[in-house]
Amino acid sequence: MTYCDFAGLERTPLERDPFDFVVVPDFLKSENFPAVVADYPEVPGPGSHPPSELKIHGHFRALIDELRGPEFQTAIESKFGVDLSGRPTMYTVRGYVRERDGAIHTDSKTKIITVLLYMNERWREDAGRLRLLRGPDNLDDYVAEVPPYGGTLLAFRRADNSWHGHKPISGQRRAIQLNWVTSQAVVDAEQNRHGFSTRLKRLKNLFVRSSAA
Length: 213
Prior knowledge:
By secondary structure, the chain is of the alpha+beta class. The chain has one domain: Sandwich (Jelly Rolls), CATH 2.60.120.620. Helix content is 29%, strand content 23%. It has helices spanning 6-11, 33-38, 58-67, 70-80, 184-212, and strands at 21-24, 48-49, 89-97, 111-118, 130-133, 142-146, 153-157, 164-165, 171-181. The strands form 2 sheets. The protein has a 6-stranded antiparallel β-sheet with strand order 1-7-4-9-3-2, with helices on one face. Strand 5 and strand 6 form a beta hairpin. The N and C termini lie far apart (44 Å).
């Protein structure tokens, strides 16, 4: 089974204003979306969670294997005109956002390509839609707004002006983030940092449940 619409990615033009990005609706094929969502891992709260702290299985694992496989890397290299050979990947899983999330930023300089795959079944809210911005100061000065549902893919080249953010919202907002980064040391540091945060949130949840019992 092929989960991703590589042909759709290939035929979607790369946008270059104000930075390099591509948005592909239904990149996770619609016929595969329900099965992957059914196997989406439980996360203990907001933030980014590394796979080492989650139960990754079934169709979700198969999708991740495809995203980390050679066909997707070749497609991204071709789309962005970048050589990613020797560049490690890392991914995290998100399930919820807080009101403080979505602040305008560019991503760290250790990231080369950022990929976001949105895994919500629907999205009616105005808030929570990622906006690709012309600058760091105004969420309304955007060139594209990405609907965070239905297997929509956003990929962009990290740059000093790759500003993005969204209006604040609190609640469920599922997304997979995959990055090609500059070195394995970056992967190790980021995964450890996110892993520590995930463990703290899980302990907090256990404490809250035990207190309520």
